[in-house]
Sequence to fold (272 residues):
Amino acid sequence: MNIILNKINSQKGIAFTVDTIFSVLIILIILFSFSIFTFQKVTTENFFEKQFILEQKTIAISDAIVKNNNSNSFLGMSVIDVDKKRVLSNIISLENKNFNNLNLDNFFIKEITVKFKNNSSQNIFFVETTATSCFSINRFVIVKGITQEKAKIEVVGCYE
Amino acid sequence: MNKGFVLSMEAVLSLILFSLLFVSITPSPQISFKELIALEQANDLLKVWSSNFEVNELKSDIEFMFNKNVTLKLDEIVIVESNLKNESISTSAKILDKNLKERNVELIIYFN
Fold:
């Protein structure tokens, strides 16, 4: 056995000292931990970016609904004051209910509900979906009909 | 010389540099729309009140829209006070009431 070991030790070749093995191990550990760290960071950033865009689009749509008047109700449900020739911000009419498709990548509006101050509510738009990544926002409005009622309009936006 | 764990100057320097590198990578701040949403909702209230100002409905409107995390001041008098005192955003408006009297309405919304 001793003879074999001596033979091996005397052979020329790449000599790995304990120091080198130790440093190589440290480098590998560092590289491994750094790649895990980077991977986790990228995954989290992706999640937050998606959430950011989801919130941004839902807020924008809700803002358009309460502030504009448009043939597509997603882009405006406000009442127009014909005499003053202007849109009445935060005063909506449920008669302006004409929801056409919105093409915003994978984003879509899942639900729009009007919750009146007297605790009654009316679902004015709903899409059946299995999407789990959703965000909702409430806006305070006056719903103009035969009478004027204060209500909050809840807009739920989702990502496919 | 005692046997032990010896690090060269280069090794010490590289370890310091590496730890500095790790420390310098701070998580990017999470951008949130909480502040914007609070401001938008407060402005919604002010807009609705500007077209239909009823002093006795202010409190119920606030409770309907927000939970109890809002302070409302009407002509510098506190009408509703929030118990929460964390991050806040405020907005105000001058609204004419039914007698065409100018009323100063201020809303402070506490969020987070």
Observations:
- The helical segments of chain B are 9-24, 34-51, 58-65.
- Residues 34-51 of chain B form the longest helix (18 residues).
